[in-house]
Amino acid sequence: MYYSKTILKRFLSPKFMGKITKPDGVGNTQNLKCGDVMKIYLKVSKKQGKEVISEIKFETMGCGHAIASTDMICELALGKTLEQAKKIKFSDVALKLGQMPPQKLHCSSLAQYALQQAIFDYEKKHLKPKATPKKN
Amino acid sequence: MQEKQATIYLDNASTTSLDSKVLEAMLPYFKEQFGNASSIHALGQTARVAVEKAREQVALFLNCKESEVYFTPSATFSDNLAILGVVRVAQKKGIKPHIITNVIEHPAVLEPIKHLEKTGQIEATFLPVYQEGIVKVEDVERAIKSNTCLVSIMQANNEIGTIQPIDEIAQVIGNFRGPKKYPLFHTDAVQAANYLDLNVEKLGVDLLTLSGHKIYGPKGIGVLYVKQSTLLEPIVFGGHQEAGLIPGTENVANIVGLGKAIELVKSSKLKVQSLRKLRDKLIDGILKEIPQTFLNGSREQRLANNANISFKGVEGEALLILLDQAGIAVSTGSACSSGSLEASHVLMALDCGKERAHSAVRFSLSKNTIEKEIDYVLNVLPKMVEHLRKISGFKV
Protein backbone atom coordinates (compact mmCIF):
# COMPACT_ATOMS: atom_id res chain seq x y z
CA MET A 1 0.00 0.00 0.00
CA TYR A 2 1.38 3.36 -1.04
CA TYR A 3 1.87 5.92 1.72
CA SER A 4 2.98 9.34 0.50
CA LYS A 5 5.33 11.45 2.61
CA THR A 6 2.55 13.90 3.57
CA ILE A 7 0.25 11.10 4.68
CA LEU A 8 3.02 9.38 6.57
CA LYS A 9 3.92 12.61 8.39
CA ARG A 10 0.30 13.27 9.38
CA PHE A 11 -0.14 9.68 10.48
CA LEU A 12 3.04 9.56 12.55
CA SER A 13 2.43 12.87 14.31
CA PRO A 14 -1.13 14.02 13.96
CA LYS A 15 -1.79 17.59 15.16
CA PHE A 16 -5.39 17.21 16.24
CA MET A 17 -5.57 13.83 17.93
CA GLY A 18 -7.34 13.65 21.27
CA LYS A 19 -10.61 14.43 22.92
CA ILE A 20 -12.37 17.65 24.02
CA THR A 21 -13.78 17.14 27.49
CA LYS A 22 -16.87 19.32 27.14
CA PRO A 23 -17.49 19.41 23.41
CA ASP A 24 -20.28 21.42 21.79
CA GLY A 25 -20.68 18.74 19.13
CA VAL A 26 -19.51 15.19 18.53
CA GLY A 27 -19.48 13.18 15.33
CA ASN A 28 -19.13 9.44 15.73
CA THR A 29 -19.08 7.38 12.61
CA GLN A 30 -18.07 3.90 11.56
CA ASN A 31 -17.53 2.31 8.20
CA LEU A 32 -19.55 -0.85 8.67
CA LYS A 33 -17.70 -2.62 5.92
CA CYS A 34 -14.06 -2.06 6.82
CA GLY A 35 -14.60 -1.42 10.54
CA ASP A 36 -12.84 1.96 10.83
CA VAL A 37 -14.20 4.23 13.57
CA MET A 38 -13.83 8.03 13.59
CA LYS A 39 -14.85 10.55 16.22
CA ILE A 40 -14.64 14.34 15.83
CA TYR A 41 -15.12 16.72 18.76
CA LEU A 42 -15.97 20.42 18.28
CA LYS A 43 -15.97 23.62 20.28
CA VAL A 44 -17.97 26.39 18.67
CA SER A 45 -17.72 30.08 19.54
CA LYS A 46 -19.39 33.18 18.17
CA LYS A 47 -17.30 35.58 16.13
CA GLN A 48 -18.95 38.69 14.65
CA GLY A 49 -22.33 37.02 14.94
CA LYS A 50 -21.17 33.86 13.19
CA GLU A 51 -20.56 30.44 14.67
CA VAL A 52 -16.99 29.43 14.21
CA ILE A 53 -15.18 26.15 14.98
CA SER A 54 -12.74 27.32 17.63
CA GLU A 55 -11.39 23.96 18.69
CA ILE A 56 -11.42 20.55 17.04
CA LYS A 57 -10.01 17.13 17.92
CA PHE A 58 -10.38 13.58 16.68
CA GLU A 59 -10.04 9.94 17.66
CA THR A 60 -9.65 7.40 14.86
CA MET A 61 -9.29 3.67 14.91
CA GLY A 62 -8.19 3.03 11.36
CA CYS A 63 -5.25 2.80 9.01
CA GLY A 64 -2.68 5.51 8.39
CA HIS A 65 -4.80 7.04 5.62
CA ALA A 66 -7.83 7.18 7.90
CA ILE A 67 -5.81 8.86 10.66
CA ALA A 68 -4.19 11.31 8.24
CA SER A 69 -7.59 12.09 6.68
CA THR A 70 -9.22 12.92 10.02
CA ASP A 71 -6.25 15.01 11.04
CA MET A 72 -6.39 16.94 7.76
CA ILE A 73 -10.14 17.57 7.90
CA CYS A 74 -9.67 18.96 11.41
CA GLU A 75 -7.05 21.36 10.10
CA LEU A 76 -9.32 22.42 7.22
CA ALA A 77 -12.29 22.94 9.56
CA LEU A 78 -10.52 24.86 12.34
CA GLY A 79 -11.45 28.54 12.32
CA LYS A 80 -14.15 28.04 9.68
CA THR A 81 -17.79 28.99 10.16
CA LEU A 82 -20.17 26.07 10.42
CA GLU A 83 -21.54 26.85 6.97
CA GLN A 84 -18.03 26.83 5.50
CA ALA A 85 -17.07 23.65 7.34
CA LYS A 86 -20.13 21.85 6.05
CA LYS A 87 -18.88 22.40 2.54
CA ILE A 88 -15.54 20.66 3.11
CA LYS A 89 -15.51 17.62 0.87
CA PHE A 90 -13.51 14.42 0.99
CA SER A 91 -11.89 15.52 -2.24
CA ASP A 92 -10.52 18.62 -0.47
CA VAL A 93 -8.93 16.34 2.11
CA ALA A 94 -7.51 14.02 -0.53
CA LEU A 95 -6.17 16.97 -2.52
CA LYS A 96 -4.43 18.38 0.55
CA LEU A 97 -2.90 15.02 1.42
CA GLY A 98 -1.83 14.40 -2.15
CA GLN A 99 -1.29 11.04 -3.86
CA MET A 100 -3.98 9.13 -2.03
CA PRO A 101 -4.46 5.66 -3.55
CA PRO A 102 -7.99 5.25 -4.99
CA GLN A 103 -8.86 2.40 -2.63
CA LYS A 104 -8.17 4.74 0.30
CA LEU A 105 -10.51 7.54 -0.79
CA HIS A 106 -13.26 6.10 1.39
CA CYS A 107 -11.10 7.02 4.42
CA SER A 108 -11.41 10.70 3.54
CA SER A 109 -15.11 10.35 2.85
CA LEU A 110 -15.57 8.84 6.31
CA ALA A 111 -13.74 11.87 7.72
CA GLN A 112 -16.11 14.21 5.85
CA TYR A 113 -19.07 12.35 7.30
CA ALA A 114 -17.64 12.51 10.84
CA LEU A 115 -17.19 16.29 10.57
CA GLN A 116 -20.71 16.80 9.20
CA GLN A 117 -22.11 14.66 11.98
CA ALA A 118 -20.29 16.71 14.60
CA ILE A 119 -21.74 19.92 13.14
CA PHE A 120 -25.19 18.35 12.97
CA ASP A 121 -24.86 17.25 16.59
CA TYR A 122 -24.03 20.83 17.59
CA GLU A 123 -26.96 22.23 15.63
CA LYS A 124 -29.30 19.67 17.12
CA LYS A 125 -28.30 20.75 20.61
CA HIS A 126 -28.09 24.48 20.03
CA LEU A 127 -30.26 25.41 17.09
CA LYS A 128 -32.91 24.03 14.88
CA PRO A 129 -31.33 21.55 12.48
CA LYS A 130 -30.84 23.08 9.06
CA ALA A 131 -29.74 20.04 7.20
CA THR A 132 -29.12 16.39 7.83
CA PRO A 133 -25.66 15.14 6.98
CA LYS A 134 -25.37 13.38 3.71
CA LYS A 135 -23.22 10.31 3.36
CA ASN A 136 -21.01 10.30 0.33
CA MET B 1 7.94 1.83 3.08
CA GLN B 2 9.26 1.85 -0.39
CA GLU B 3 12.26 4.05 0.47
CA LYS B 4 13.44 1.90 3.31
CA GLN B 5 14.64 -1.68 3.14
CA ALA B 6 13.23 -3.89 5.86
CA THR B 7 15.96 -5.12 8.16
CA ILE B 8 13.93 -7.46 10.36
CA TYR B 9 11.92 -9.65 8.05
CA LEU B 10 8.98 -11.32 9.80
CA ASP B 11 6.82 -11.90 6.74
CA ASN B 12 8.09 -15.32 5.73
CA ALA B 13 4.61 -16.72 5.18
CA SER B 14 4.38 -14.25 2.26
CA THR B 15 7.71 -15.18 0.81
CA THR B 16 11.15 -16.26 2.00
CA SER B 17 14.56 -14.99 0.99
CA LEU B 18 16.42 -17.10 -1.55
CA ASP B 19 18.99 -19.37 0.10
CA SER B 20 22.42 -18.61 -1.33
CA LYS B 21 23.03 -22.30 -1.98
CA VAL B 22 19.85 -22.32 -4.05
CA LEU B 23 20.94 -19.30 -6.02
CA GLU B 24 24.30 -20.91 -6.65
CA ALA B 25 22.61 -24.05 -7.98
CA MET B 26 20.34 -22.00 -10.26
CA LEU B 27 22.87 -19.60 -11.78
CA PRO B 28 24.36 -21.84 -14.53
CA TYR B 29 20.89 -22.46 -15.98
CA PHE B 30 20.27 -18.81 -16.83
CA LYS B 31 23.20 -18.38 -19.20
CA GLU B 32 25.73 -21.15 -19.89
CA GLN B 33 23.24 -24.00 -19.62
CA PHE B 34 20.34 -22.27 -21.30
CA GLY B 35 19.12 -25.32 -23.20
CA ASN B 36 15.52 -26.39 -23.63
CA ALA B 37 15.00 -29.58 -21.64
CA SER B 38 13.05 -31.02 -24.59
CA SER B 39 15.92 -30.60 -27.07
CA ILE B 40 17.85 -33.66 -28.20
CA HIS B 41 21.29 -32.04 -28.42
CA ALA B 42 23.82 -31.89 -25.61
CA LEU B 43 22.67 -28.51 -24.26
CA GLY B 44 19.13 -29.75 -24.11
CA GLN B 45 20.15 -32.94 -22.43
CA THR B 46 22.08 -31.06 -19.72
CA ALA B 47 18.90 -29.15 -18.94
CA ARG B 48 16.90 -32.40 -18.94
CA VAL B 49 19.30 -34.00 -16.48
CA ALA B 50 18.99 -30.97 -14.19
CA VAL B 51 15.18 -31.10 -14.31
CA GLU B 52 15.13 -34.82 -13.56
CA LYS B 53 17.57 -34.39 -10.70
CA ALA B 54 15.21 -31.84 -9.14
CA ARG B 55 12.32 -34.26 -9.63
CA GLU B 56 14.33 -36.86 -7.76
CA GLN B 57 14.98 -34.40 -4.92
CA VAL B 58 11.26 -33.66 -4.61
CA ALA B 59 10.32 -37.36 -4.80
CA LEU B 60 12.78 -38.13 -2.03
CA PHE B 61 11.25 -35.41 0.15
CA LEU B 62 7.69 -36.58 -0.45
CA ASN B 63 8.57 -40.29 -0.38
CA CYS B 64 6.93 -40.87 -3.75
CA LYS B 65 7.90 -41.97 -7.25
CA GLU B 66 9.60 -39.47 -9.51
CA SER B 67 6.85 -40.02 -12.08
CA GLU B 68 4.36 -38.66 -9.55
CA VAL B 69 6.08 -35.26 -9.30
CA TYR B 70 4.90 -32.53 -11.69
CA PHE B 71 6.46 -29.09 -11.95
CA THR B 72 4.01 -26.21 -12.36
CA PRO B 73 4.37 -22.45 -12.85
CA SER B 74 3.11 -21.75 -9.29
CA ALA B 75 1.32 -23.26 -6.30
CA THR B 76 -1.82 -21.47 -7.48
CA PHE B 77 -1.53 -23.36 -10.76
CA SER B 78 -1.03 -26.62 -8.82
CA ASP B 79 -4.17 -26.04 -6.74
CA ASN B 80 -6.20 -25.12 -9.81
CA LEU B 81 -4.96 -28.15 -11.72
CA ALA B 82 -5.79 -30.46 -8.81
CA ILE B 83 -9.34 -29.13 -8.55
CA LEU B 84 -10.31 -28.40 -12.14
CA GLY B 85 -8.36 -31.40 -13.48
CA VAL B 86 -10.09 -33.87 -11.15
CA VAL B 87 -13.53 -32.38 -11.82
CA ARG B 88 -13.06 -32.71 -15.60
CA VAL B 89 -12.49 -36.45 -15.31
CA ALA B 90 -15.18 -36.95 -12.67
CA GLN B 91 -17.78 -35.12 -14.77
CA LYS B 92 -17.43 -37.80 -17.43
CA LYS B 93 -19.15 -40.24 -15.11
CA GLY B 94 -22.36 -38.38 -15.77
CA ILE B 95 -22.90 -37.38 -12.14
CA LYS B 96 -22.54 -33.85 -10.81
CA PRO B 97 -19.33 -34.02 -8.73
CA HIS B 98 -19.19 -32.84 -5.13
CA ILE B 99 -16.15 -31.21 -3.53
CA ILE B 100 -15.45 -30.76 0.18
CA THR B 101 -13.16 -28.02 1.40
CA ASN B 102 -13.10 -25.57 4.31
CA VAL B 103 -13.58 -21.87 4.81
CA ILE B 104 -9.94 -20.93 5.54
CA GLU B 105 -8.32 -22.35 2.43
CA HIS B 106 -6.08 -20.14 0.30
CA PRO B 107 -7.91 -18.32 -2.53
CA ALA B 108 -6.03 -20.60 -4.96
CA VAL B 109 -8.28 -23.42 -3.68
CA LEU B 110 -11.42 -21.48 -2.72
CA GLU B 111 -11.79 -19.51 -5.93
CA PRO B 112 -11.71 -22.39 -8.47
CA ILE B 113 -14.20 -24.29 -6.28
CA LYS B 114 -16.48 -21.25 -6.01
CA HIS B 115 -16.22 -20.76 -9.76
CA LEU B 116 -17.24 -24.37 -10.44
CA GLU B 117 -20.09 -24.08 -7.98
CA LYS B 118 -21.32 -20.78 -9.38
CA THR B 119 -21.34 -22.11 -12.92
CA GLY B 120 -23.37 -25.12 -11.80
CA GLN B 121 -20.65 -27.66 -12.54
CA ILE B 122 -20.26 -29.04 -9.03
CA GLU B 123 -21.77 -29.11 -5.56
CA ALA B 124 -19.48 -27.78 -2.85
CA THR B 125 -19.31 -28.02 0.94
CA PHE B 126 -17.27 -25.45 2.88
CA LEU B 127 -16.55 -26.87 6.32
CA PRO B 128 -16.20 -24.58 9.37
CA VAL B 129 -12.98 -24.37 11.39
CA TYR B 130 -14.36 -23.09 14.72
CA GLN B 131 -12.44 -20.79 17.10
CA GLU B 132 -9.23 -22.80 16.94
CA GLY B 133 -9.05 -22.65 13.16
CA ILE B 134 -9.08 -26.43 12.75
CA VAL B 135 -11.30 -28.69 10.67
CA LYS B 136 -13.13 -31.44 12.58
CA VAL B 137 -12.57 -34.91 11.16
CA GLU B 138 -16.16 -35.88 11.93
CA ASP B 139 -17.37 -32.92 9.85
CA VAL B 140 -15.48 -34.31 6.87
CA GLU B 141 -16.94 -37.75 7.53
CA ARG B 142 -20.47 -36.37 7.65
CA ALA B 143 -19.99 -34.31 4.49
CA ILE B 144 -18.80 -37.14 2.22
CA LYS B 145 -21.45 -38.24 -0.26
CA SER B 146 -21.59 -40.82 -3.02
CA ASN B 147 -20.75 -38.12 -5.61
CA THR B 148 -17.85 -36.60 -3.65
CA CYS B 149 -14.92 -36.61 -6.05
CA LEU B 150 -12.45 -34.49 -4.12
CA VAL B 151 -11.66 -33.34 -0.60
CA SER B 152 -9.21 -30.42 -0.45
CA ILE B 153 -7.90 -29.43 2.98
CA MET B 154 -4.67 -27.46 3.44
CA GLN B 155 -1.98 -28.97 5.66
CA ALA B 156 -1.32 -25.67 7.42
CA ASN B 157 -2.91 -22.27 7.10
CA ASN B 158 -1.00 -19.32 5.69
CA GLU B 159 -2.43 -16.65 8.00
CA ILE B 160 -2.80 -18.30 11.39
CA GLY B 161 -0.51 -21.28 10.88
CA THR B 162 -3.01 -23.82 12.19
CA ILE B 163 -2.29 -27.44 11.29
CA GLN B 164 -5.08 -29.66 9.99
CA PRO B 165 -5.36 -33.37 10.90
CA ILE B 166 -4.49 -34.53 7.37
CA ASP B 167 -3.70 -38.18 8.19
CA GLU B 168 -6.94 -38.60 10.15
CA ILE B 169 -8.96 -37.04 7.36
CA ALA B 170 -7.21 -39.36 4.88
CA GLN B 171 -8.27 -42.33 6.98
CA VAL B 172 -11.92 -41.27 6.94
CA ILE B 173 -11.77 -40.76 3.18
CA GLY B 174 -10.01 -44.11 2.73
CA ASN B 175 -12.68 -45.90 4.74
CA PHE B 176 -15.42 -44.44 2.60
CA ARG B 177 -13.58 -44.98 -0.66
CA GLY B 178 -12.72 -48.66 -0.21
CA PRO B 179 -11.70 -50.13 -3.60
CA LYS B 180 -13.36 -47.23 -5.52
CA LYS B 181 -11.43 -44.31 -7.04
CA TYR B 182 -13.23 -41.45 -5.32
CA PRO B 183 -13.09 -39.29 -3.30
CA LEU B 184 -9.54 -38.15 -3.97
CA PHE B 185 -7.73 -36.17 -1.29
CA HIS B 186 -5.74 -33.01 -2.07
CA THR B 187 -3.73 -30.96 0.38
CA ASP B 188 -2.07 -27.60 -0.13
CA ALA B 189 1.18 -28.08 1.79
CA VAL B 190 2.78 -24.80 0.73
CA GLN B 191 3.09 -23.40 4.27
CA ALA B 192 3.75 -26.73 5.92
CA ALA B 193 6.77 -27.83 3.89
CA ASN B 194 9.40 -26.21 6.12
CA TYR B 195 8.03 -27.62 9.34
CA LEU B 196 5.92 -30.77 8.96
CA ASP B 197 6.36 -34.29 7.63
CA LEU B 198 5.26 -34.35 4.00
CA ASN B 199 5.62 -38.08 3.49
CA VAL B 200 2.66 -38.68 1.18
CA GLU B 201 2.39 -42.33 2.22
CA LYS B 202 1.98 -41.35 5.86
CA LEU B 203 -0.31 -38.43 5.05
CA GLY B 204 -2.46 -40.61 2.76
CA VAL B 205 -3.04 -37.93 0.15
CA ASP B 206 -3.57 -38.35 -3.60
CA LEU B 207 -2.58 -34.83 -4.57
CA LEU B 208 -0.27 -32.35 -2.84
CA THR B 209 0.78 -28.79 -3.66
CA LEU B 210 4.20 -27.25 -2.99
CA SER B 211 5.69 -23.86 -3.71
CA GLY B 212 9.30 -22.83 -4.31
CA HIS B 213 9.37 -19.40 -2.73
CA LYS B 214 8.04 -20.42 0.68
CA ILE B 215 11.01 -22.72 1.25
CA TYR B 216 13.87 -20.31 0.45
CA GLY B 217 13.59 -21.17 -3.24
CA PRO B 218 12.62 -19.07 -6.27
CA LYS B 219 9.22 -17.54 -7.05
CA GLY B 220 7.27 -18.75 -10.06
CA ILE B 221 7.65 -22.48 -9.51
CA GLY B 222 5.38 -25.04 -7.87
CA VAL B 223 4.86 -28.77 -7.62
CA LEU B 224 1.81 -30.95 -7.82
CA TYR B 225 2.22 -34.47 -6.53
CA VAL B 226 -0.22 -36.70 -8.42
CA LYS B 227 -0.66 -40.29 -7.31
CA GLN B 228 -2.76 -41.38 -10.25
CA SER B 229 -2.45 -39.20 -13.30
CA THR B 230 -5.34 -40.87 -15.12
CA LEU B 231 -7.75 -39.19 -12.71
CA LEU B 232 -6.59 -35.75 -13.84
CA GLU B 233 -6.97 -33.83 -17.11
CA PRO B 234 -4.90 -30.85 -18.20
CA ILE B 235 -6.41 -27.40 -17.79
CA VAL B 236 -4.20 -25.69 -20.36
CA PHE B 237 -3.15 -27.19 -23.67
CA GLY B 238 0.09 -27.19 -25.58
CA GLY B 239 3.21 -29.31 -25.76
CA HIS B 240 4.03 -32.64 -24.22
CA GLN B 241 5.88 -31.27 -21.18
CA GLU B 242 5.20 -32.83 -17.77
CA ALA B 243 3.42 -35.73 -19.49
CA GLY B 244 1.15 -33.26 -21.24
CA LEU B 245 -0.41 -32.25 -17.94
CA ILE B 246 1.43 -28.94 -17.63
CA PRO B 247 2.47 -27.88 -21.13
CA GLY B 248 5.05 -25.16 -21.59
CA THR B 249 8.85 -25.11 -21.75
CA GLU B 250 10.28 -26.13 -18.39
CA ASN B 251 11.62 -23.26 -16.30
CA VAL B 252 14.90 -25.07 -15.77
CA ALA B 253 16.60 -22.59 -13.41
CA ASN B 254 13.51 -22.39 -11.18
CA ILE B 255 13.04 -26.15 -11.19
CA VAL B 256 16.69 -26.62 -10.21
CA GLY B 257 16.20 -23.99 -7.47
CA LEU B 258 13.13 -25.72 -6.09
CA GLY B 259 14.93 -29.06 -6.07
CA LYS B 260 17.85 -27.60 -4.15
CA ALA B 261 15.55 -25.72 -1.75
CA ILE B 262 13.61 -28.86 -0.94
CA GLU B 263 16.84 -30.75 -0.34
CA LEU B 264 17.87 -28.07 2.16
CA VAL B 265 14.58 -28.26 4.10
CA LYS B 266 15.89 -31.37 5.84
CA SER B 267 18.74 -29.47 7.48
CA SER B 268 16.59 -26.45 8.37
CA LYS B 269 14.10 -28.79 10.06
CA LEU B 270 16.77 -29.46 12.68
CA LYS B 271 16.35 -25.85 13.78
CA VAL B 272 12.58 -25.99 14.19
CA GLN B 273 12.74 -26.40 17.96
CA SER B 274 14.83 -23.28 18.45
CA LEU B 275 12.62 -21.41 15.99
CA ARG B 276 9.55 -22.40 18.01
CA LYS B 277 11.23 -21.09 21.15
CA LEU B 278 11.82 -17.73 19.51
CA ARG B 279 8.24 -17.62 18.26
CA ASP B 280 6.97 -18.48 21.76
CA LYS B 281 9.10 -15.71 23.19
CA LEU B 282 7.45 -13.30 20.77
CA ILE B 283 3.90 -14.49 21.52
CA ASP B 284 4.37 -14.62 25.30
CA GLY B 285 6.19 -11.30 25.30
CA ILE B 286 3.40 -9.53 23.45
CA LEU B 287 0.53 -11.14 25.38
CA LYS B 288 2.26 -10.33 28.67
CA GLU B 289 3.57 -6.83 27.98
CA ILE B 290 0.69 -5.42 25.95
CA PRO B 291 -2.78 -5.58 27.50
CA GLN B 292 -5.81 -6.55 25.40
CA THR B 293 -3.90 -8.65 22.90
CA PHE B 294 -5.06 -12.03 21.62
CA LEU B 295 -3.49 -14.91 19.73
CA ASN B 296 -5.58 -15.97 16.74
CA GLY B 297 -5.93 -19.70 16.11
CA SER B 298 -4.81 -22.72 18.08
CA ARG B 299 -1.63 -22.28 20.10
CA GLU B 300 -0.70 -25.98 20.00
CA GLN B 301 -1.72 -27.08 16.51
CA ARG B 302 0.30 -24.35 14.88
CA LEU B 303 3.33 -23.96 12.63
CA ALA B 304 6.52 -23.22 14.57
CA ASN B 305 7.09 -19.89 12.80
CA ASN B 306 3.65 -18.29 13.02
CA ALA B 307 2.30 -15.71 15.46
CA ASN B 308 -0.96 -14.00 14.50
CA ILE B 309 -2.00 -11.48 17.13
CA SER B 310 -4.83 -8.97 17.48
CA PHE B 311 -4.23 -5.66 19.26
CA LYS B 312 -7.54 -4.32 20.50
CA GLY B 313 -8.22 -0.68 19.64
CA VAL B 314 -5.58 -0.66 16.91
CA GLU B 315 -6.06 -1.15 13.18
CA GLY B 316 -3.66 -3.69 11.69
CA GLU B 317 -2.37 -1.68 8.74
CA ALA B 318 -1.58 1.31 10.95
CA LEU B 319 0.57 -0.90 13.16
CA LEU B 320 2.16 -2.50 10.10
CA ILE B 321 3.26 0.92 8.84
CA LEU B 322 4.70 1.90 12.22
CA LEU B 323 6.63 -1.39 12.37
CA ASP B 324 7.81 -0.82 8.81
CA GLN B 325 9.11 2.60 9.84
CA ALA B 326 11.19 0.81 12.44
CA GLY B 327 12.48 -1.61 9.80
CA ILE B 328 10.26 -4.54 10.77
CA ALA B 329 8.27 -6.25 8.00
CA VAL B 330 4.99 -8.01 8.92
CA SER B 331 1.55 -8.45 7.34
CA THR B 332 -2.04 -7.86 8.39
CA GLY B 333 -5.49 -9.34 7.92
CA SER B 334 -7.10 -5.93 8.27
CA ALA B 335 -9.78 -4.85 5.83
CA CYS B 336 -7.87 -1.62 5.16
CA SER B 337 -5.10 -3.40 3.33
CA SER B 338 -7.19 -5.93 1.43
CA GLY B 339 -8.21 -3.73 -1.47
CA SER B 340 -11.73 -5.15 -1.23
CA LEU B 341 -12.32 -3.60 2.20
CA GLU B 342 -13.12 -7.07 3.47
CA ALA B 343 -11.24 -8.32 6.52
CA SER B 344 -9.35 -11.60 6.11
CA HIS B 345 -11.71 -14.50 5.42
CA VAL B 346 -9.52 -16.66 7.66
CA LEU B 347 -9.82 -14.42 10.72
CA MET B 348 -13.52 -13.83 10.10
CA ALA B 349 -14.02 -17.61 10.03
CA LEU B 350 -12.66 -17.90 13.58
CA ASP B 351 -15.80 -16.22 14.80
CA CYS B 352 -13.97 -13.75 17.05
CA GLY B 353 -15.65 -10.71 15.56
CA LYS B 354 -14.81 -8.18 12.92
CA GLU B 355 -12.83 -5.93 15.26
CA ARG B 356 -10.37 -8.68 16.07
CA ALA B 357 -9.83 -9.39 12.39
CA HIS B 358 -9.38 -5.68 11.78
CA SER B 359 -6.64 -5.44 14.40
CA ALA B 360 -4.66 -8.56 13.50
CA VAL B 361 -0.98 -8.60 12.60
CA ARG B 362 0.90 -11.68 11.40
CA PHE B 363 4.51 -12.23 12.37
CA SER B 364 6.06 -15.15 10.46
CA LEU B 365 9.62 -16.06 11.38
CA SER B 366 12.27 -17.82 9.29
CA LYS B 367 15.23 -20.11 9.80
CA ASN B 368 17.34 -16.95 9.75
CA THR B 369 15.46 -15.12 12.53
CA ILE B 370 17.65 -14.44 15.57
CA GLU B 371 16.80 -13.66 19.18
CA LYS B 372 18.13 -10.11 18.95
CA GLU B 373 15.49 -9.36 16.32
CA ILE B 374 12.67 -10.68 18.49
CA ASP B 375 14.01 -8.66 21.42
CA TYR B 376 13.97 -5.53 19.27
CA VAL B 377 10.36 -6.13 18.21
CA LEU B 378 9.32 -6.69 21.83
CA ASN B 379 11.14 -3.50 22.75
CA VAL B 380 9.52 -1.17 20.19
CA LEU B 381 6.06 -2.72 19.79
CA PRO B 382 4.43 -1.67 23.10
CA LYS B 383 5.08 2.04 22.41
CA MET B 384 3.62 1.75 18.92
CA VAL B 385 0.46 0.11 20.19
CA GLU B 386 0.20 2.73 22.93
CA HIS B 387 0.57 5.52 20.36
CA LEU B 388 -2.16 4.12 18.11
CA ARG B 389 -4.46 3.51 21.06
CA LYS B 390 -4.00 7.14 22.03
CA ILE B 391 -5.08 8.16 18.53
CA SER B 392 -8.07 5.81 18.58
CA GLY B 393 -9.08 6.83 22.10
CA PHE B 394 -9.00 3.21 23.24
CA LYS B 395 -8.67 2.88 27.00
CA VAL B 396 -7.09 -0.28 28.32
From TrEMBL, chain A:
Domain of life (superkingdom): Bacteria
Gene3D superfamilies cross-referenced by the UniProt entry: 3.90.1010.10
InterPro entries: NIF_FeS_clus_asmbl_NifU_N
GO BP: any one term: iron-sulfur cluster assembly
Protein name: Iron-sulfur cluster assembly scaffold protein
MF-aspect GO terms: iron ion binding; iron-sulfur cluster binding
Domain (NIF system FeS cluster assembly NifU N-terminal) ranges: 3-127
TrEMBL record, chain B:
InterPro entries named in the record: Aminotrans_V_dom (IPR000192), Aminotrans_V_PyrdxlP_BS (IPR020578), Cysteine_dSase (IPR016454), PyrdxlP-dep_Trfase (IPR015424), PyrdxlP-dep_Trfase_major (IPR015421), PyrdxlP-dep_Trfase_small (IPR015422)
PANTHER family: CYSTEINE DESULFURASE, CYSTEINE DESULFURYLASE FAMILY MEMBER
Signal peptide (residue range): none
Cofactor: pyridoxal 5'-phosphate
Tagged with keyword Translocase: no
Highest taxon, organism lineage: Bacteria
UniProt KW Metal-binding keyword: yes
Protein name, as recorded: cysteine desulfurase
Residues in Aminotransferase class V domain copies: 8-377
Enzymatic class: transferase
Molecular function as annotated in GO: cysteine desulfurase activity; iron-sulfur cluster binding; metal ion binding
Keyword terms: Iron, Iron-sulfur, Metal-binding, Pyridoxal phosphate, Transferase
EC id: 2.8.1.7
Family, per entry: Belongs to the class-V pyridoxal-phosphate-dependent aminotransferase family. NifS/IscS subfamily.
Gene3D superfamilies: 1.10.260.50, Aspartate Aminotransferase, domain 1 (3.90.1150.10), Type I PLP-dependent aspartate aminotransferase-like (Major domain) (3.40.640.10)
Species this chain originates from: bacterium (Candidatus Gribaldobacteria) CG10_big_fil_rev_8_21_14_0_10_37_21
Catalytic reaction list: (sulfur carrier)-H + L-cysteine = (sulfur carrier)-SH + L-alanine
